Amino acid sequence: MNFKRVKYNPEKIIPVLIVCLLLSSCGERESEDRIIPQPYKGNLDRLASDLREARSGMEFILVKPGEFMMGSGEAEADRPAEHPRHRVTINRPYYLGKYEVTVDQFQAFVEDVGYRTDAEERGKASGWDGRRWGKKRGVNWKNPGFDQETDHPVVCVSLNDGRAFCRWLGDEYRLPSEAEWEYAARAGTDSAFYWGTGLEEVCRYANGGDLSAGRIFDGWNTSACDDGYAWTAPAGCYLPNRWGFYNMAGNAWEWCEDAWHGSFAGAPPDQGVWGEIGGGGRRVLKGGAWYFEPRDLRVAARNSHRAYEATNGAGFRVLRDISE
Ligand SMILES: [Ca+2]
Ligand SMILES: [Ca+2]
Question: Which of 3, 122, 146, 237 sits 20 to 30 Å CA-CA off 135?
Fold first, then answer.
């Protein structure tokens, strides 16, 4: 097996627990046990640089081991949830979806197993309707409150729905940890955006709240450029990051498995999930979405919802583990 369960360092966890209890910011109790990925024993050179999953047609890109600094830098110092910036070692390679999971891929899963999403079961989802944010009756992945094509990212899906989709694909598929997501999104960069720091380039790389959105969302705070879409855009629109991943900034927020913590104090130095795997409390989302201004499209930006919550700005991307 490639993973071992170890007792996490209580000297680091206990202060975080105390702060969380005082601030009521964690949402769920931290587990003392976590799974730490073990170094890869295979030959990296023998791994394909990309692959296609036969059932869904989803494309994946190989992410090789390395190190990176996780969280926001000095120029982004007003964001306590993204601090302290800390070194993370990625010691196992993995494949990550080149694109967000699309409406037609999610539909194939639903039709195959008769799945009903959390939003369908609850009869509602949250979202932005162009005028206000709130819970909307009858809103779900089939009807997110705006028109979508089948190649757009599926939204109004909960963390639970994302996990169910991964189980359908097979045992080696799962949602990424936040560290695995941010390592792939940064793609070797350490700037606020994975294209650098330029706000003038936002609309070339990301579908966010832009001038197209500003023409529809009255009084909305937008980028000073036009990316062409007020709502979601096709997966594969815009420029990819340096490693070939599309829309990691913007379009749909993307679920990660980590439990929500109000800062990175005590964060693990590896790619493993921070927090109990399979829990139902608040979980991390990354990347920003179609209605957000540029600061929420930064690589370090973080959001959280409960595992059952669905919003019309949130979707997900799939990770495929590599054995050995
Ligand atoms: Ca847009
Ligand atoms: Ca995205």
Answer: 237
pLDDT of 58 over the 50 cut: yes
Ligand 2 mean position, distance from CA 194 (Å):
13
Please count the structural domains in the chain. 1
Please report whether residue 229 resides in a domain: yes
The answer as to whether 163 is a domain residue is yes
CATH number at residue 274: 3.90.1580.10
Q: 313 C-alpha to center of ligand 2: Å?
A: 9
pLDDT at 16 over 90: no
For the CA of 290, the nearest ligand: 1
User: Whole-angstrom Cα distance, residue 228 to residue 237?
Assistant: 10
Range of the domain at 73: 37-320
Q: How far is the CA of 290 from the centre of ligand 2 (A)?
A: 9
Ligand nearest the Cα atom of residue 212:
1
In a domain, 316, yes or no: yes
**Within-domain flag for 277:** yes
Q: What is the pLDDT of residue 101?
A: 98
CB burial string 190-213: b at 16+ within 10 A, e below: eebbbbeeebeebbebbbbbbbbb
If you measure from the C-alpha of residue 24 to the centroid of ligand 1, how many angstroms do you get, rounded to a whole number? 34
Distance from the alpha carbon of residue 223 to the mean position of ligand 1, in angstroms: 9
